[in-house]
Amino acid sequence: MQRFSAKSTFQNIPISLLRRCISSTSQTAMAASDEFLGRLPPFEYIPPPYTGPSADVILNQRKEFLSSYTSCLYKKPLNIVDGKMQYLFDESGRRYLDAFAGIAVVNCGHCHPHVVKPVIDQIKRLQHPTTLYLNHAIADFSEALASKLPGDLKVVFFTNSGTEANELALMMAKLYTGYQDIVSIRNGYHGNAAGTMGATGQSMWKFNVVQTGTHHALNPDPYRGVFGSDGEKYARELHDLIQYGTTGHIAGFVFEAIQGVGGIVELAPGYLSAAYDIVKKAGGLFIADEVQSGFTRTGDFWGFEAHNVVPDIVTMAKGIGNGFPLGAVVTTPEIARVLTRRCYFNTFGGNAVATTAGLAVLNVIEKDKLQENASMVGSYLKGRLDQLKEKHEIIGDVRGRGLMLGVELVSDRKLKTPATAETLHIMDQMKELGVLVGKGGFFGNVFKITPPLCFTKDDADYLVEAMDYSVSKM
């Protein structure tokens, strides 16, 4: 077989001609990018001129003063300096359609005026009084937040992150039940501290430290799971795991209704309702991790609502504060009482500025009808993505609910071979066309589409067109 050689192929072509070819290709790509940018939905906001350091300067600072774990998306990292609703702007003023929302965080939209104003008013008046004094901000938000949960879930503990919230929930489950074993689901992600790292079901997020007392059930993944969409079979495996891997009694079962970091994986139908009965018979608490799926992202206020279960504990973060460091655990008064056995305190949990932001988020969700929009636009976008799947063999699966959607890329549909390298390439191409999406899944081959919930049908159309074009150029 004749081996391809760039040297032998191009050695007889004049350098000037090669340069013109390369220049022509570059100009064609730029023209395509400009054509697409011209079709971006109109938007009135124009950011003020940016006068700060360049992307290169910031990148060098990060390399010198931050750990290498703070990696960047894209071959050429973006320097994002401004944002408004569902759009972000780089240092040159170029506008991008944000379909990632800071990893499912900015649910209301970037710099939403009805979030920004009350926060500014609060920070001007009082920034951090400590919860040891009375202040209305934490009380108002806790009451409003509890009203969004079913049953007797009405006692709120505030934290600063999802990891903190999940750590607290796991500890409460152990204290309340008197048991020590936790069951979670493979491919799930719950945090990076001691207990939550143990509950996380992906090796890439688990450091070589002692992680005991956690058991991982089969992932009820309709696309890659061993039982397909048969939720009952996965539930029977959960039952066997408890019977053979524990004392028969567990402290709790923690789950994401839609796995976020794991690649926007919906749990198989019927699994959670069957798992609920199994967990209860084993004496455990049912713990819903709503860090990514909560606050109407899925079209329901909470992800677990689609499964007809009411958890004993609900954890949340990300969308709760629209970008402010805020998390929470909500549980019943009976379970909450376990923390009165000792002194529990969180210095910044319930901070006046953060809880002001949290209350503003709830008000915006209602005023702007973001739950209805997430459901309507999310269904429309998913339908358009399903059409792309029929067109492009590389798209193996489209999944999710509301505006928490995943597109899994495979190089072989039958074998479901992860198209990891292709995913990175297409992401870069979409960025050049002005669309930002996330990436996740165990193999890094899933586009995570989690935009601000103010996303419109026009935005959805533009995203699909950019993805269609980028995949077509593979």
Largest sheet: 7 strands, mixed
Q: Which radius of gyration do the C-alpha atoms yield?
A: 24 Å
Strand order in the sheet with the most strands:
4-12-11-10-7-5-6
Would you give the CATH topology of the largest domain?
A: Aspartate Aminotransferase, domain 2
- Overall pLDDT score: 93
Walk me through this protein's architecture.
The structure is a single chain. The chain folds into two domains: 32-101 and 370-472, Aspartate Aminotransferase, domain 1 (Alpha-Beta Complex), CATH 3.90.1150.10; 113-368, Aspartate Aminotransferase, domain 2 (3-Layer(aba) Sandwich). It is 39% helix and 16% strand. The protein contains 15 helices and 18 strands. Helix 9 (231-245) packs parallel to helix 10 (271-281), helix 13 (370-391) runs parallel beside helix 15 and helix 14 crosses helix 15.
Could you name the key traits of this structure?
474 residues; alpha/beta; Aspartate Aminotransferase, domain 1; Aspartate Aminotransferase, domain 2; 2 domains; 15 helices; 39% helix; EC 2.6.1.44; Aminotrans_3_PPA_site
Short précis:
By secondary structure, the protein is α/β, with parallel strands linked by helices. Helices cover 39% and strands 16% of the residues. It is globular.
Give me the secondary-structure topology.
Elements lengths: L5 H5 L4 H23 L17 H11 L14 E5 L2 E4 L4 E4 L2 H4 L8 H13 L10 H11 L8 E5 L2 H16 L4 E4 L8 H6 L14 E4 L13 H15 L6 E4 L2 E2 L5 E2 L4 H11 L3 E5 L23 E4 L10 E5 L1 H4 L15 H16 L2 H22 L3 E7 L2 E9 L4 E2 L1 H13 L2 E2 L1 E3 L5 E4 L7 H16 L2
Parallel strand pairs: 3-16, 5-6, 5-7, 7-10, 10-11
Antiparallel strand pairs: 1-2, 2-3, 4-12, 8-9, 11-12, 13-14, 14-15, 14-18, 17-18
Helix pairs in contact: 5-12, 6-12, 9-10, 13-15, 14-15
